[in-house]
Write a structure and sequence with these properties.
alpha/beta, seven-stranded mixed beta sheet, 11 helices, 9 strands
């Protein structure tokens, strides 16, 4: 059986003219109007979306939405904060024969735990659920949003109540490179570690900025995330994030300097020494050179110290 396809519709450029739409630069919006390109993006969500459940973030005029629907998704939920796009998205909903639901909401506040039926849920350690999150994200929300979703991966909440839901998201090319950078790569950073200890992360391809309207100053990276069955660092997200943030705070200096800021001054030297002795990490290494195993060792050492010293986990440098 071939996937359901949308009936003939006005082109995206016609939609933009019809509703007087334009991308707002202050909201870091960029439209992708080439449906061949939106088809290519959606293809990387999975070989076949027929019968899948998809949440699209920031659909704008609905280019990627059309490609998702044309690949036969069973249910598509789009969350768009900008109410100017509601008429064009509602037109798509009417053409989708009940497969598209439109929400005028802020994805940072939107509850994704009840948007799909219970029957789609899979055991975390079993097969992947047929649930996908897709988004051409505004640049100003992409980094805080992926950190929030990675936290949700770690505790199986939000869109991950269904199991290991996959994500296909766009970022500035530099951010995409950071998310996928291995140790010793020039772009290795906090997002690299936080993403890769929880997910298999793949930089699928790069979209030239000139393919977007209006043309941004940077190219765009398309990144795919598949949550791992077991995190590489088996500790609470907030603890791992705190250690990683501190270690990378002084990126090109000895990692000892970053570890020191985990502790109040009176106990700084003693506990910093303990962390390196316990983990076996060389304190004269720089953060981007550390392997995931070495960062895991530092996190385990810090966790043990926090267990011993009440309230230390709540201490924040500056």
């Amino acid at each position: 059986m071939s996937p359901l396809r949308l009936p003939p519709l006005p082109t995206l450029r016609e939609i933009i003219r019809l509703y007087g739409l334009r991308a707002e630069k202050q909201l870091a919006q960029n439209f992708i109007l080439d449906l061949n390109l939106t088809d290519k993006i959606v293809k990387y969500a999975g070989k076949n979306l027929e019968g899948a459940y998809v949440c699209e973030v920031g659909p704008g005029p609905g280019g990627i939405t059309r490609s998702i629907l044309n690949r036969g998704a069973s249910q598509v939920v789009v969350v768009e904060k900008d109410k100017r796009f509601m008429p064009s998205l509602q037109m798509l909903a009417e053409a989708s024969e009940g497969r598209l639901q439109v929400f005028n909401d802020d994805i940072l506040k939107f509850n994704m735990e009840n948007i799909f039926p219970e029957t789609v849920k899979k055991d975390w350690h079993g097969d992947l659920p047929d649930v996908h999150i897709i988004g051409n994200l505004p640049f100003n929300v992409s980094t805080p949003l992926i950190i929030r979703w990675l936290a949700a991966v770690s505790n199986h909440s939000g869109p991950f109540v269904y199991g290991r839901s996959r994500m296909l998201l766009t970022f500035q090319k530099e951010v995409a490179e950071r998310l996928t950078a291995p140790p010793n790569h020039p772009q290795r950073s906090r997002p690299s570690v936080m993403a890769q200890h929880l997910c298999h992360v793949k930089h699928c391809f790069t979209i030239p900025g000139k393919a977007c309207v209006p043309t941004p100053d940077v190219d765009i990276g398309v990144v795919h995330f598949t949550p791992l069955k077991e995190p590489l660092i088996k500790l609470p997200f907030h603890l791992v994030e705190k250690v990683v943030r501190s270690v990378f705070h002084f990126r090109q200096k000895y990692c000892r300097k970053g570890v020191e800021i985990l502790f109040p001054y009176p106990m700084m030297k003693e506990l910093t020494n303990e962390m390196f002795e316990s983990s076996g990490v060389d304190p004269t290494r720089i953060a981007p050179s550390l392997s995931m195993e070495e960062i895991n060792g530092l996190c385990l050492a810090y966790s043990a110290i926090c267990d011993r010293i009440p309230g230390l986990i709540d201490y924040n440098y500056r």
